[in-house]
What we know:
The protein is mostly helical. It has helices spanning 3-29, 37-49, 55-85, 96-117, 128-133, 138-162, 167-198. The chain has one domain. It is found in: Cell membrane. Keywords: Cell membrane, Membrane, Transmembrane, Transmembrane helix.
Amino acid sequence: MSVVDGLIAGAGSVVEAAGYAGLALVMLAETVLPIPSEVVLPLVGLQITAGQMLFWAAAPAATVGSVLGAWMLYALGRLGGRPMALRLPRFLGITEKRLARTESWFSRRGDLIVLLGRLVPGVRCLVSIPAGTLRMPVRRFLVLTALGSLAWNSALLGLGMWLADRWETVLGAVSSATPYAMAAIAVGGLLTLALRSTRCPTRD
């Protein structure tokens, strides 16, 4: 079993044992651990279909965890600046060049990047850092993060409910299609807009 598989199994156990509070905790942990919400939330959707959880409670619980995790990274960026951000775990993908580039995009399209960045795998953690280092107003950051996270979490829960009788299909679909399809559609359009606005160079 890989590390990620172990984390997914552990996340499922936490949700099963602690319910909605456990779900919020798992989504908070996703900020600093490689726990893919693209797998965890559809599995929760299966539990909703089975009557073990309620959608109207699961979606807000997951969003609370997402927002708390994003706020932690925002606070690190705001209080510790770029040096603190660059000392975060390497698997988050936060390098000096990526952070500088994201800050350049953020300076022109900050609101849009925070809102839509919550919908893109691999970008969700990164967008919180420049929001902090560039001192986006905390209330605006939290509102945009909550809206984007609620949309993302609800969509994944709904996917699990829709494919409830084919759980293997759920796992295959979200683990393989999401990083490519979502990234191609969402981050492609978003970053193209940002690049045109800022004329930021794309070479490393």
